[in-house]
Amino acid sequence: MVGDVHGDLTAFEHAVATDRFIIQLGDLVDHGPDSAGTLRLMLDLIDDGRGLFILGNHDRKLGRALEGRRLRRDPPLEETLRQLSGPVQAGLRERAYEAIAEAPAWIVQGNMIFVHGGFHTDMMFEAPPPALGAMTPLLSRALFGETTGRMQPDGYPERRLRWIDHIPADHIVYCGHDRRSTDGRPWIRDGRNGGRAIFTDLGAGKGGHLAWIDLDV
């Protein structure tokens, strides 16, 4: 299992140098130096039957841009689109769009839940909606976590973690999106119901590290 990559191709290459099946938790692109390279590597893993990625908010934003939607100005996205342009990347835009459109917003595997932003108990019983379709409450939770509707001084939405208390006993939610650790190790928090959340965004592509965890399934 691999956390947010954000265009850090070198770290991603190290993370996937294994015989294990790769589950990547979303946000493959934007910010780092080689979003095109991380997409190509992930798509090759998918084609080889060796991996999949969970839909992240940056991936969905890229997918919507690739289908021609007008989005507000976003320099990291604009750089990703620039990297996907030109003859050297022939076919990559189409492959990326198709993969993003098919990416699940969450996966439940036994007592493990894989999701980019945050968990909701309904994810245990409902299939993910279409990645590039209308934004639903569950899709919003999966992509952005639980937000308060207020903005922080840094310009990002204020988020709360009450959802951790609703993780069922003996279940583990692996997620990214929020960088809550700066010491190079995933941030772990246990909920009141006996579940656990493991946050794996360590700032890859933004001057931090890339997290990956070997899981026995």
Automatic annotation (TrEMBL):
Query: Which Pfam family would be a valid example here?
Result: Metallophos
Source superkingdom: Bacteria
| InterPro entries found in the cross-reference section | Ap4A_hydrolase (IPR050126), Calcineurin-like_PHP (IPR004843), Metallo-depent_PP-like (IPR029052)
Q: Where is the Calcineurin-like phosphoesterase domain?
A: 2-122
- Protein name per UniProt: Calcineurin-like phosphoesterase domain-containing protein
Which organism is the protein's source?
Asaia siamensis
